[in-house]
Amino acid sequence: MERFFLLVLGCLGVSRASADSLSPPVNVTIREVKANSAVVSWDIPEGDPVIGFAITQQKKDVRMLRFIQEVNTTTRSCALWDLDGETDYIVHVQSISMSGTSPLSEPLRFRTPREAETQASKSKDEVTMEEVGQATQLRAGELIIIVVVLIMWAGVIALFCRQYDIIKDNEPNNNKDKAKNSSECSTPEHPSGGLLRSKV
Question: Which UniProt keywords apply (predicted)?
């Protein structure tokens, strides 16, 4: 296995002498392990002129590995993606400087859980930021609907009050007109007509 990593270093144009002059990362840890992703983090020994990092990710007992390289960065963590559930992985981290690449860090071994275990580990009371955003959108939508309904009701009430005032203003005139018409059209002596109506 060491021969393979030396071959990788050779392909990168780094000699063993220059690689040994840089210390490997320390305190390599794994966190946020899920069925298909995880985050690896590390520290750099003080004084090392590090300009980037390189990570090798390998399934246990499988020769194929993934190589991740980043330069011109001070990041001290990296997301591992597209992992398989219930699988053992081995991760190494290397520092990159202008003069070359450090030796490999101590191997970090971890195992991904099953998808069902990842979902079960999420507490019922735990609220993710995505759920908070959805709840905020729902509340905003509800408030908009309430405001629109209130405006519509206010419009209906204003229209009703206006119509009521018009009806109320016209009501006494209608009563006077009705009383006037009834007095002109009939009298006790002539219930079916006016005073000037002639008999045939």
Answer: Glycoprotein, Membrane, Secreted, Signal, Transmembrane, Transmembrane helix
